[in-house]
Amino acid sequence: MINKLMKSDFGGKVFLALLAVITAYVAIAHLLIPQGNSFHVSIFTVTLLGKYLTYALLAISVDLVWGYLGILSLGHGAFFALGGYAMGMYLMRQIGDRGVYGNPLLPDFMVFLNWQELPWFWLGFDQFWFAMIMVVLAPGLLAFVFGWLAFKSRVTGVYLSIITQAMTYALLLAFFRNEMGFGGNNGLTDFKEILGFSLQSDGVRVALFVSSAIALALGYLSCRYIVNSKLGRVSVAIRDSEDRVRFIGYRVDFFKLWVFTFSAVLAGIAGALYVPQVGIINPSEFSPINSIEIVVWVAVGGRATLFGAVLGALLVNYAKSYFTGAFPEIWLFGLGGLFILVTILAPQGVMGYFKRKTKGAESIPDESMKAAVEGEAK
């Protein structure tokens, strides 16, 4: 199935090959090459690259709904944060003595706020399997309910984008409140271990990096499978002419709901992998500016390519890491200027620019999608 899936996706093959090579090199270079050697990769770099990979998975989830479905979501940061909070709640339950049955140990912030017992929605998070279910269920359920209401009402275009941004802002305000039971402004932090292993150990850090790379590869393959399927072809048709697709007889709202929910689950998984690597999750992850930044990543890399979204996430975040240190006062202006320049000079992003240069066309569709459409026509 994978061979058939990747047959017409040369860019995807290159991306997956590079991902495998870089992941193997970073892991080996850190664990086996001694410090002081020029080929050694520090644990700081391993963690930084792991964080970038979670951002890349998040960018793919946005590209799936924006590039192929035509939904400009300005709220995917909310799904990312919900997955992160689910993981953070599990990590908080791993701190100290687990307590006795019926009287579990309270996290530090609850003790500080004089809470007498663990809230019901924290129960079960001392088990890894339960936390992983919630990593998928929390963002997926929110996306399903939100999408059901929005798509059934036929909210589209800029109105839908504004509503998605309002959703994430509402969650931002809610999670800032101490009485919500999620740590308030400080969020969840000071994690110690995962699955019984110390989060500060180099082996765990490398394992999280490798897990992020595997999740990114699987997320890419899943999205590529979707866009090459009938669901993907109908999604592109909805993007290009929603009314025509509806008049043909397709239940447009069902197609939108399925893809939107799946992309939210991918974003939640990215958030779950992000939290143990950075060591904190707080309400700032719900900030609307974060969701807008994700859209910039996809725009820079190129919509409707998937691996272009990965490239955009890596480029923009590397630039952010550099410029926030060198020019902290003007970084946001630079990010806005980058988005404007890409929109004007390279509306199809970096990948679209290279396609035009190499093929000499004004508008080059995604090759795998082109092949899928031709196959459907036959």
Task: Give structural notes.
- The protein is mainly alpha-helical.
- It has one domain (2-377).
- The chain is 70% helix and 3% strand.
- It has 16 helices and 6 strands.
- It has helices spanning 2-6, 10-31, 43-67, 76-93, 108-112, 128-152, 157-176, 202-228, 230-240, 242-248, 252-278, 288-301, 307-326, 331-345, 349-359, 367-377, and strands at 99-100, 103-104, 188-189, 193-194, 197-198, 280-281.
- A two-stranded antiparallel sheet has the order 1-2.
- A hairpin with a 2-residue loop joins β4 (193-194) and β5.
- α2 (10-31) packs antiparallel against α8, α3 packs antiparallel against α11 (252-278) and α3 (43-67) packs across α13.
- The chain is globular, with a radius of gyration of 21 Å.
- It starts with a helix and ends with a helix.
- The relative contact order is 0.17.
- Mean pLDDT is 87; it is low at 361-378.
Category from helices, strands and their pairing: mainly alpha
Measured between the Cα atoms of the first and last residue, the distance is 21 Å
Q: Give the integer mean of the pLDDT values.
A: 87
Measured on Cα atoms, how large is the radius of gyration? 21 Å
Which shape, going by the Cα principal axes? globular
Strand order of the largest sheet: 1-2
Tally of structural domains:
1
Give the % helix: 55-70%
Total beta strands: 6
> What is the string of helix and strand elements?
HHHHEEHHHEEEHHHHEHHHHH
Uncertain regions: pLDDT < 50 for 5+ in a row? 361-378
- Sheet with the most strands, sense and barrel status: 2 strands, antiparallel
Quote the beta fraction: under 5%
